[in-house]
Known about the structure:
Bound molecules: NADPH dihydro-nicotinamide-adenine-dinucleotide phosphate, 2-hydroxyethylsulfonic acid
Strand order of the largest sheet: 3-2-1-4-5-6-9
Distance between the termini: 49 Å
Number of helices: 8
Low-confidence stretches: none
Amino acid sequence: MRKTAFITGATSGIGMATAKLFAQNKINLILCGRRQERLDKLKNELASKVDVHTLTFDVRDREEVFRTIEGLPESFQKIDILVNNAGNAHGLDLMQDGSVDDWDAMIDINVKGLLYVSKAIMPRMIEQKSGHIINIGSIAGKEVYPKGNVYCASKFAVDALNNAMRIDLNEHGIRVGAVNPGLVETEFSEVRFKGDSDRAAGVYSPLDALQADDIADIIHFVVTRPYHVNIADLVVVPTAQASAYVINKR
Ligand code: NDP
Ligand code: 8X3
């Protein structure tokens, strides 16, 4: 029987690449994001390969998250894989200069949003006595870098929650693990720099940055291990990136 994956942040970058790779490998999809038109387009593209259902919600909206997931159609009720991917950085400023709105966005989306979605889905996995949760953390959740402050804190929280979920769900036989990328060329920096595409492009140039497909490939590897194998915590960086802030840009 085919598995079903629930992917947050499927409208762009890592989430979209994962959705496409899962579809190629016959994993049915529940695709989430705020941008309805992108979800519709992706569904049209993938529906010939697998069953696809889309959910449009903002992960910050607690009631909407629970209501939407509760209302999933019968054929999408059983969720085998949850990819907690929705998230972004907002701003790159010294802490003393940071925008409180940016701080709220990062904590609300990257931490609280991940918690809401997980809370809505974990009981289903417990009832099924199986499931696999992949939390997309970051190298920023392993090391703090200059001006990374609140984004790093949000990803350190994801790191802690990944470990906490694995511990608390252990007795239920549910797999939990994190994939923590370094620099991946997606819309991430455009969001961080509020649409400044030149500044965003400069983050990934001149270096051979990771691409969303590289991370999708790793996520697919993680979910296709035999059930007794759980990849608990994985860090992946471009070869040019030795740490969060040692980056060879020559
Ligand atoms: P993108 O900006 O390309 O994608 C972000 C995704 O998150 C979009 O699909 C977006 O959908 C969704 N999202 C953002 N805010 C919300 C919200 N409030 N509610 C629902 N969905 C939301 O970035 P990436 O693909 O790079 O990022 C994916 C994950 O990878 C993030 O958690 C990020 O922190 C992490 N990461 C990224 C790295 C990088 O260098 N790119 C490195 C390490 C980790 P929509 O706007 O339609 O809602
Ligand atoms: C994204 C990686 O280094 O831009 O999480 O923060 S970084």
